[in-house]
Amino acid sequence: MPQSDDNTPAAREAAAGVPKPRSEEGSPLIRFDKVVKRYGDNTVLDHLDFSVQPGQRVSLIGPSGSGKTTILRLLMTLEHVTDGVIWVNGDPLSHEYKGTDLVKAGEQHQREVRKKIGMVFQQFNLFPNMTVRRNITESPIHTLGVSRDEADQRAAELLDMVGLKERIDAHPTQLSGGQQQRVAIARALAMRPEILLLDEVTSALDPELVAGVLDVLREIARTTDITMLSVTHEMQFAKDVSHRVLMFDKGKIVEEGPPDQIFGAPAEDRTREFLHAVLEG
Amino acid sequence: MDWGFIGDNFPALIEGLQLTILATAVGYVVALVLGLLVAIARRSAPRPVAWTVHWIMEFIRCTPLLVQLFFLFYVLPGFGISLGPLAAGIIGLGLHYAAYTAEVYRSGIEGIPKGQWEAGRALSISPGRMWTAVILPQAIRRVIPALGNYLIAMFKDTPLLFAITVPEMLFKANELAGTNFKYLEMISTVGVLFIIVSVLSAVVIRFLERRYAAV
């Protein structure tokens, strides 16, 4: 690799021969570049390429084991790519520059890029030893350095938005699953992420609690321009909020397009089979 | 049974008991703190450190406390490290029981669902903050009963300090009994005092359990 004294990211990329990601719509916020993820002999993601524009809401659908959740876990840096590079806002997420070389990212780099990304989990993962308020304010105060007053106020606003203003002093164990998940959404948003990852957020809920959580997410979709990647089995929700739907099977994107197309007139047999199984089954 | 003899020598036994309780209390604090550090190191420290710590603790658990006490009190001075009897006793109890409390903490830490760590990463919470604010408060609550059992076990091990000349309760009792051959009186009283303190400790631990153990 040629050595350069110029240390700007653009210069480093030029020197490294890595072009800035481009598309007709402007530069994407997220770009997967030939991403491979293997667990032993099991290939979960197979040279996956796709990008997401800022503000876009994307639903990831497909049979279980097709690699959808792995995409979110890679973005959240809970897992590491086997091969390929993930770019967020033009910066490598899974890698960092060492001179002009892209090397596997260290913990420090990951902690920085991770701050732009929030995630809501299937099992909520609230901290049971803290009140709802502290669940939401813990990281803004101790990671971002927000003042306690400001964090408290923001927590109150977010809880109001998810309809749980009066439960601010409750402990997670005193809440229903649906309520816990709404707190988890508020907790993720309190970090003001640019990207919100939703990993089957209603799959662990009793059926009657699903609607409340989805309504909150619809409201967030309607009132903010946060970029959203959502792995979901709620097809109506995917139809309502998404700009784009990606259909996965066996670690590859089988088909993608606007929800009208995917749900109305899918081009691929695999998509039709899957939707038939989910909607009729 | 010579009740008068017990009455006359009771204050001396209580003096010994105070030393027993002191050794237990300080030793227990050492065991709690050291065990916690060991448990965290075994999970978070670089591989060689974690591995070394693991084998030291394994070694301690595989050798008798009495041998360790003798080592601290009679062998170390040969290497220029002279400890008083009480200091050697407290260090010995603390080290020995740290090997056990570390295992207790470990089970508590491993019982925390993976999702807690993942949520911490998703929120960019630093590892240090994650330990102190999220993991340990949950893990320690889970292991209060097990930690409490080791407090009582340690208390009952303090007579071993007799062997390194700490004038704890059994030491006193033996000394007093030896002069008049009143072993029945003295040793029985020691037993009764141990029962009383153990039962009281158990009650306190039960209270702490009920107060904190429920998450």
TrEMBL record, chain A:
Protein keywords: Amino-acid transport, ATP-binding, Cell membrane, Membrane, Nucleotide-binding, Transport
Domain ABC transporter: start-end pairs: 30-275
Compartments (UniProt record): Cell membrane
UniProt key word Acyltransferase: no
Main location: membrane
Lineage: superkingdom: Bacteria
Any one GO molecular function term: ATP binding
Cellular component terms per the entry's GO annotation: plasma membrane
Database matches in PROSITE patterns: ABC_TRANSPORTER_1, ABC_TRANSPORTER_2
Region described as Disordered: 1-26
Record InterPro entries: AAA+_ATPase, ABC_ATPase_HisP-typ, ABC_transporter-like_ATP-bd, ABC_transporter-like_CS, Ectoine_EhuA, MetN_ABC_transporter-like, P-loop_NTPase
Any one Pfam family match given in the protein's UniProt record, by short name: ABC_tran
Membrane topology: Peripheral membrane protein
PANTHER family: AMINO ACID IMPORT ATP-BINDING PROTEIN, GLUTAMATE_ASPARTATE IMPORT ATP-BINDING PROTEIN GLTL
Sequence similarity: Belongs to the ABC transporter superfamily.
Protein name per its UniProtKB record: Amino acid ABC transporter ATP-binding protein (PAAT family)
Organism, scientific name: Murinocardiopsis flavida
Automatic annotation (TrEMBL), chain B:
Keywords on record: Amino-acid transport, Cell membrane, Membrane, Transmembrane, Transmembrane helix, Transport
Top-rank taxon: Bacteria
A GO-annotated cellular component: ATP-binding cassette (ABC) transporter complex
Limits of the ABC transmembrane type-1 domain: 17-205
Gene3D superfamilies for the chain: MetI-like
Bilayer-spanning residue ranges: 20-41, 186-208
InterPro entries assigned to the protein according to its UniProt record, in alphabetical order: AA_ABC_transptr_permease_3TM, ArtM/GltK/GlnP/TcyL/YhdX-like, Ectoine_EhuD, MetI-like, MetI-like_sf
Membrane topology classification: Multi-pass membrane protein
CDD domains: TM_PBP2 (cd06261)
Molecular function per GO: transmembrane transporter activity
Location in the cell: Cell membrane
Keyword Membrane among UniProt keywords: yes
SUPFAM superfamilies: MetI-like (SSF161098)
Family classification: Belongs to the binding-protein-dependent transport system permease family.
Name this polypeptide is given: Polar amino acid transport system permease protein
